[in-house]
Amino acid sequence: MSSATATEAESATERLTLVEGVREGLHTEMARDDRVMVLGEDVGKNGGVFRATEGLFEEFGEERVVDTPLAESGIVGSSIGLALSGMKPVAEMQFMGFAYPAFDQLVSHAARLRSRSHGQYTCPMVVRAPYGGGIRAPEHHSESKEAFFVHEPGLKVVVPSTPADAKGLLTAAIRDPDPVVFLEPKLIYRAFREAVPRGSHAVPLGEAAVRREGSDVSVFTWGAMTRPALIAAGNLAEEHGVDCEVVDVRTLSPLDVGTVVASFEKTGRAAVVHEAPKTAGVGAEIATTIQEEALCYQEAPIKRIAGFDAPVPLHALEDYYLPQAVRVQDGILETVGF
Amino acid sequence: MHRVIGERDLDATPFDADDARDLLRDMIRARRFDERAVVLQRRGWMSGYPPFAGQEATQVGAAHALAAEDWLFPTYRSNAMQLARGVPMGDLLAFRRGHPEFTADHDLPIFPQAVPIATQLPHAVGAGMAADHLENDHAILCDFGDGATSEGDFHEAMNFAGVFDAPVVFLCENNGWAISLPRERQTASPTIAQKASAYGFDGTQVDGMDPLAVRSAVEEALETARAGEPVLVESLTYRQGAHTTSDDPSRYRDEGPDLPAWRTRDPIERFVEYLADQAVVDDGFVEDCKEEADDELDDAIATAEAIPEPESGELFAHVYAEPTPELDRQCASLAGED
Questions:
Q1: Is the same domain home to A167 and A222?
Q2: What is the band of B100 on the pLDDT scale with cuts at 50, 70, 90?
Q3: Are residues A273 and A306 in the same domain?
Q4: Is the dihedral of CA B21, B27, B33, B35 positive or negative?
Q5: pLDDT value at position A7?
Q6: Mean pLDDT value of segment B303-329
Q7: B160 contact A CB<8A
Q8: What is the pLDDT of residue A4?
Q9: Nearest CB partner across the interface for B126, out of A80, A108, A154
Q10: Do A115 and B104 touch (CB under 8 A)?
């Protein structure tokens, strides 16, 4: 009996990297729903420059895994046309830093089609983009500009930090009736493996995940910064007896205000960690939300540990730019010691 | 260049006297609408309006070329096209009075118009790709002006259409002006139609002041599109008036245009003269059309005026399929309920 149960449990999951989780999310939804299709540069035969679409072309054919000309606005603009016509396009921007030509299509149309038409037209589509730094890439390959999209009503913005979430959140994004910008932290595309449910696996959008429970300070983060935040939390527990709660926000729009505020009410102190530039980053939104909702619980200034207000540098300077565990740790200590 | 007037009798076209009278009736309806709309804007009854006077032959001719199931992707100046396709005058007026729900409050295959230039072209291509994918045999007619041909989305959409054999007819209403910029400063190409050859499909010019020629050219193009080849149609027309009710063309159009007489002659006068010569209409027909249009307009104005002012909650109703908790809070706050 026990061995049968173990086999069953094993077959219910597979150990995947984050990028494999993305691929599995696409594969499962494409197998489940004929309307789901993938479009982008090099997503077909090549399987995507990060291999996120590997094998999909062979299985689903060129009609549903579409290698497009090199034109981001064309990719997102035609995806809008596909979405309003009954398809469920998943468009890939090869890197977030190359998504800007499509910005107009995303904010002027994908985000607004529902309100423009009072709900008579909708735009159920996903725009995926590898994002963030730390891979020693050329200029424009390391951007974290999630705030651009969070600022736009009508869009949802999602950032997974684990392989299971990559699959589960992407599944939910594909099934969502509204346009979702899905940002994949490429630094951790292959950093680790974990058990990911096989078959249909959806993680609801709009719900943050508490990755580490704690009572002294809340650390809000997402994407590739979740790991240094957890390392810092471990170090702080060991070296300073500080008990951090680490909240992986996961969906940046709409923000899970309930989980953020509940955590803060427990700890009374907070740090926000993101690799995007500090000024007008999503950290500012989280800090302000806490002050609006839970000011009376506040015991210290909310610390923002972020990328600097300088263009993302080439890689000789990259380690100064990105928050590392040590900087995260120091920032948390600052708010704890206030 | 496609042309009927001055070259052929009506008997030598695919169209009969009823077809011709239907075209003229819609051109007169549209002109009466346009004239009244400008007056209504001047009175402060509705907001800014982009007149189409001079372009009725192009817009009505193209609308009459569409099969019932073909899709139209209009631009903001395509109101004559929408009227001729069956959109109620009251809806167009209500939209200009700030009621967005009337931009698509019908079951006609007409996509909601929007203000950004050329952004609807990639949408039309995506809709064409979806038609292929879903094995629908309708075509897509995408309308835009000469200014739009300078935008990147024009290039990206034309390129995608060529690569994917999208069943799209790109209809460029070359009215000679993009606000103040004359056509010869918009592009160094001798014609706009010739741009199609760079994308691997046909481009054609039509006398855009001749509704029979436009209808015939667009019908032919739609047939080609349904067979899997996109087409670019350049309709040579003329914007008689201002860009919008906020524009003063005397600042940039003090000299007469360097265009042939047929291009700047009023298309309704020219068509009436042709049809009178063909013994298809008389003065009485024209007067009847005007009276019918004026009655229709009076009813439309009354209908638009009777629309109640929206509740504040409508602001939030169609941002997402389900309002986010934050939107619910903002909605309650605006309504004074919190």
A1: no
A2: confident
A3: yes
A4: negative
A5: 54
A6: 95
A7: yes
A8: 46
A9: A80
A10: no
Most confident of A125-129, A315-319, B101-105: A125-129
Is residue A204 assigned to a domain? no
Nearest residue of chain B to residue A108 (CA atoms): B116
> What amino acid positions of B are annotated as catalytic residues?
239, 243, 252
Query: Is the CB of B157 less than 8 angstroms away from the CB of A87?
Result: no
Place of tokens 């929206």: B310
State the CATH number of the domain containing residue A297: 3.40.50.920
For residues B241 and A332, give the distance between their C-alpha atoms in angstroms, rounded to a whole number.
64
> A242 and A139 in one domain?
no
Angle, helix B17-42 to helix B267-277, in steps of 10 degrees: 150
Q: Domain B10-307 - what CATH class?
A: alpha beta
CB A68 within 8 A of CB B162: no
The verdict on A137 and A215 lying in the same domain is: no
B324 touches chain A (CB under 8 A): yes
Question: In terms of C-beta density within 10 A (0-12 exposed, 13-18 middle, 19 or more buried), how is residue A199 classed?
Answer: exposed
Q: pLDDT band for position B234 (50/70/90)?
A: very high
Distance from CA of A116 to the nearest CA of B (A): 6
Q: How many CB pairs under 8 A join A and B?
A: 141
Nearest beta carbon to residue A257 from set B112, B319, B325: B325
Q: Domains of chain B: which residue ranges?
A: 10-307, 313-338
Q: Which of chain B's residues have a Cβ under 8 Å away from the Cβ of A63?
A: 133
Angle at A275 between CA A189 and CA A214, to 5 degrees: 85
| Distance in angstroms (rounded) separating the CA atoms of residues B166 and B123 | 11
List of chain B residues whose C-beta atoms are within 8 Å of the C-beta of residue A87: 130, 133-134
Taking the Cβ of residue B125 and every Cβ of chain A, the question of whether any pair is shorter than 8 Å is answered with: yes
> Do A93 and A37 belong to one domain?
yes
What local confidence, expressed as pLDDT, does residue A325 receive? 92
Is any Cβ of chain A less than 8 angstroms from the Cβ of B131?
yes
Q: Per-residue pLDDT tens for B277-303?
A: 999 999 999 999 999 999 999 999 999
